[in-house]
Amino acid sequence: MELPFAESWKIKMIEPIKKSTRQEREVWLKEAHYNVFQLKAENVYIDLLTDSGTGAMSDRQWAELMLGDESYAGAASFYKFQAMVQKILGFEYVIPTHQGRAAENVLFSYLVKEGNIIPGNAHFDTTKGHIEARKAKAIDVTTPDARDTQKELPFKGNVDLEHLEKILIENRGNVPFMVLTVTNNTVGGQPVSMKNIKETCELCHKYNVPVVMDSARFAENAYFIKEREEGYKDKSIKEIALEMFANADGATMSAKKDAIVNMGGFIATRHKDWYEGAKSFCIPFEGYITYGGLNGRDLNALAQGLDENTEYDMLQTRIHQVAYLASKLDSYGIPYQRPAGGHAIFVDADKVLTHVPKEEFPAQTLTCELYLEAGIRACEIGYMLADRDPVTRENRFGGLDLLRMAIPRRVYTDNHMDVVAAALKNVYDRRESITRGVAIEWEAPLMRHFTVQLKRLK
Ligand code: F0G
Predict the structure, then answer these.
(1) Predicted model pTM
(2) pLDDT at position 220, please?
(3) Which of 242, 245, 298, 362 is deepest in the core (most CB within 10 A)?
């Protein structure tokens, strides 16, 4: 008999989590103004808000914490970290930062000027924020295939090369770089193929435009290349990762994802002038260039995390769990962005809460319903997150309206996934009775989803 699949690790330490009653959750959610970011984490049973900084470190990472060198400058921890980034990504110059958005802030301070155009495959919100804050424009060049959640394709995170070329031609001399995000978080943790990575870099370089890889989930992307792209089956994740970065000019990294640390990030590049330029912004924003907002011990844990999470078994365990949750949703007929992505399942809320008008935010409503049902916290990647058009101030209803259930790395078991799927099924079964959504009572002018206050419509 063939042995079933099981995790490539065992558990050494546990953290209790608390169940609650529906009555309690109704009070807590009302107090949180129907915005799950405002909930106390202790009132959440299974927390799928994000996979960022929420992973469980390994025994080796915890051991590395004890070996941290906390010298202000030139710490041994920095050199260990630098050597690992050079080995895994293949870039010579490395600057640590306290997280991914800090890496964006430091690098973009050097590279982005007012009026610039920066194309990308679905820029993450902070990436877009750092571009727009500098009065430049982010243009999305993701493949249109990503917009159809039911279309089953292996690399839905890909760049639409024709669209990219059009932008490069129309804006010659005004594109400081292109952002290539692997995996593509916003459209569902969908991977980018090696072929598309290479063609994107080639196309950009033809127009003298460098490529910055937003690498938060690069190891998951490498795993999908190994599993789904011809010619990569026998290559190791480390070999594939090196090949992914080989044609790019630099990278920003949120190490809170694929390096499995609770805080950390970096910039890496092959260009000395980028390094010199970014360095001068690192010092005032993040700190001296050998610690960049991190403790020596954090740099050690990050280096260890990068090494172990670019091993096949670790990624197989991770992605197997995401696929397991997806298979449960399949058996209940719940529609999500297909195929399952690397770090999360994105439920197509528009197709679930069909009676809730878009003006009443279906995905946000579904987020509330899932929390009320079982204390599960997911997040909205939809109309609320899309903010308003800066000119017309109208809500942007043009994109997808998704409920994201992001799975922290090495934290929950498949039993937790069973609970999540069952809770969602219960909501799905009573979807016809959910006819009203939420209305905004207060919102911030930018990135409103974190702090928005809502009321429940009856
Ligand atoms: N790039 C991508 C693709 C991301 O998903 C994130 C963060 C960042 C950059 C910023 O990194 O948080 O370390 O500053 N994504 C998290 C999420 C927050 O929940 O998807 P950070």
Answers:
(1) 0.97
(2) 98
(3) 362
70-107 pLDDT, tens per residue?
999 999 999 999 999 999 999 999 999 999 999 999 99
Residue 124: CB within 6 Å of ligand 1? yes
Count: domains in the chain: 2
Interacting residues of 113 by C-beta distance below 8 A, sequence separation 6+: 134, 136, 176
The answer, yes or no, to whether any atom of ligand 1 lies below 6 A from the CB of 214, is: yes
Quick one: 326 and 235 in the same domain? no
**Nearest CA, atom 8, ligand 1:** 100
Cβ of 304 closer than 6 Å to ligand 1, yes or no, is: no
**Contact, 264 vs 298, CB < 8 A?**
yes
The pair of structure tokens assigned to 133 is 């804050």
Q: Which atom of ligand 1 is nearest to the CA of 379?
A: 19
Same domain as 443, residue 377: yes
Segments in the chain below pLDDT 70: none
Residue ID of nearest Cα to ligand 1 atom 16: 52
Total count of residues recorded for the chain:
458
Using the 3D structure, point to which of 290, 308, 326 is the last residue of a domain: 308
Whether 10 is covered by a domain: the verdict is no
Same domain, 210 and 259: yes
Q: Which of 32, 75, 146, 216 is catalytic?
A: 216
d(CA 390, CA 395): 10
pLDDT computed for residue 458 by the predictor: 87
Active site residue 222: no
CB-CB contact of 120 with 179 (8 Å): yes
Q: For residue 351, what are the domain limits?
A: 22-51+312-456
125 in active site: yes
Q: What is the pLDDT of residues 303-319, one digit of tens each?
A: 999 999 999 999 999 99
